Amino acid sequence: MDGSCETCYSSSVKTFSVRDLRQRWPEAEALLRTEQEIIITRDSKPVAKLVRFTAPKKPRKRFDPVAHAKWQRKVSGGRVSRWVDGALAAAREDRPLRSDRT
Description:
Blueprint (H helix, E strand, L loop, with lengths): L13 E4 H6 L1 H10 L2 E6 L2 E7 L13 H12 L6 H10 L10
Parallel strand pairs: 1-2
Antiparallel strand pairs: 2-3
């Protein structure tokens, strides 16, 4: 089988009807290994495009808090920045402190 069906468009792009896709998924999956895309049709009209998934080259680096702290010390020259503390204190002034916290 060449991956095309009788009711589909005749073009260089491979096509499968919705029924063909459901009944012959292994063939479609094998075809995707060689083709970039497959057009899915319903009543001889294109309704979807099935494209090959390519995994990212390398996984995204996970956040490392220790390495980030080292970077912050390096960038700031070892100085501790407290500009956020003032803003947080001002925002919390209107809220009473709860004494029931342990």
